[in-house]
Every structure is written in structure tokens, then in C-alpha cells.
Amino acid sequence: MCYRCLGITKLPGLVVAGYLASVLLGCGEYKSNNFSNYAEANESGIIERGWIPPFIPKSAYDINEQHRVDVDSIDVEFMFDPGDIGVFNSACTLLEENTYLCENSGYPVLIVVTGGNHAAIKSVQNGT
What we know:
Elements: H1 11-26, E1 30-37, H2 38-44, E2 61-68, E3 73-79, H3 86-91, E4 93-96, E5 99-104, E6 107-114, E7 118-123
Antiparallel strand pairs: 1-2, 2-3, 3-7, 4-5, 5-6, 6-7
């Protein structure tokens, strides 16, 4: 289509500029990592950097984490030995059965345990 023929000369540039603005402003930079076990995650330095909380059980395996670089936001899922559930009890506040409120690097996170051996940790955003 000939935009100039229609008297529209700036439309393609505006479309590109709008797309770039939405990409740059609307989305944060996400990073993700997968680890076979706690030792592998720990060796990578990701626990020290706070992207995986230090209070996850040392028996954790099949660890998948995603975090936003521009804000303190984490999303971590892993499997663990059910006998290690006490780690959450000692490091966090039990809100209701299988749901804990914890602090990671000064920010609140929720842990939800399902099936007795699966945990999901998510940042609490805007008090929710």
C-alpha cells in the first residue's frame, strides 16, 4: 500500500515507534535458569544473588526459576524431599496449610507447597 498516495507519510514510522515504546516500557527483562539440584544452583551463585531464596531445602531438585532484572520479582518452582518441609516452618510464617510468607532479600515472597514435595515461590507484588 502506498501511504504517500493516501497522504499518510508518517504512519509507518509511528507504528514502528509505538511498537518499540510498548516493548521497552511494557515489558521487563526476564531471565530464567534451570538446575538439576540445590548444589548446582548454589554453585552458580544465583542463591547468593537472591534470585533463589537461601531457605529452600538442600534436597531441592528440578529447580526452575525466572526473575525480572529490573525489579525484585522471582518465580521459583522445585521438587524436594517431603522430610525437609521444616525448612519453611523455621524460615517463614505459616499463613494457612501449605502456604508460607517469607522474606527474601528484604522482599516478601509466598511459598505454596503441593503434593507434599513440590514448592512454588513467588514474589508478593503490591501487597497481594
